[in-house]
Amino acid sequence: MATKVTGVTQGGPPNPAGGKTRRPFLVDLYGSAVGKKYIMAITGMVWLGYVFAHMVGNLKVYLGAEDFNHYAEFLRAGLLVPIVPEEGALWGMRVLLLVTLFFHILAAYQLTVMNRNARPERYQARREFVAADFAARTMRWTGVIVLLFLLFHIADLTLGWVNPAESGATPYEKLVASFRQPVVAAFYVLANLALGIHIYHGGWSLFQSMGWNNRKFNHWRRAFAIGFAVVVVGGNVTFPLAVQFGIVS
Ligand code: HEM
User: What keywords appear on the UniProt entry (predicted)?
Assistant: First the structure.
């Protein structure tokens, strides 16, 4: 199916020799804007799945400390055991998240550079270029905020480096200790709003990037993008707010 790309050039870099290059198919595909968009969409979908499952899992905090800690321990050591060794699934997931995050950011950066170097008039109408550029700019900023949030979040709840709880505290104690700090709670809420905008734009564009862009399908795309963003962010912001309002303590 033909893929329409807005705001970027299509095809790989020009071949100075003028003849056919024989690079492996995937490398050749990645060299093109379309290939980079595939990578953005596929890696984005991995993260969409993760943030959704992570939010649903974290709802266990409302069942109390014991259930939440039990769930955290299960994720850490017990997931898919005995099919994989203890902590195997945890490390598999970490590697998948890191690799997909790396390629998501790399492809985003390279597409931005391609976009900047492209002469818009040569490829498409000016209006389309401006629209694509605006969306890309929003994605860049919300993406940077989410990335900074993620670094803080891991230093806070996974590594405990910036967490006020004593060493050896349970995951539940760490979560409550972190969200008791108003500045941290506010940061979580703001970062999740940025995540919502990012998911909304990403959830919409991924269909375009994958070539699933039949017009009749557009209102479903929009509903999916809005629904996904609202559910994930809506769930996530309840956690710091619940601690701030003393519902979780
Ligand atoms: C307010 C919402 C959130 C809460 C309450 C929350 C809670 C947690 C907790 C408790 C952990 C530590 C698990 C452990 O080590 O035992 C964790 C880890 C993590 N969270 Fe979140 N999280 C939230 C939002 C997010 C978001 C929005 C993302 C992604 C953008 C995210 C990505 C991660 C990642 C990648 C880890 C590290 C997993 C690992 O490798 O151990 N979290 N989160």
Answer: Membrane, Transmembrane, Transmembrane helix
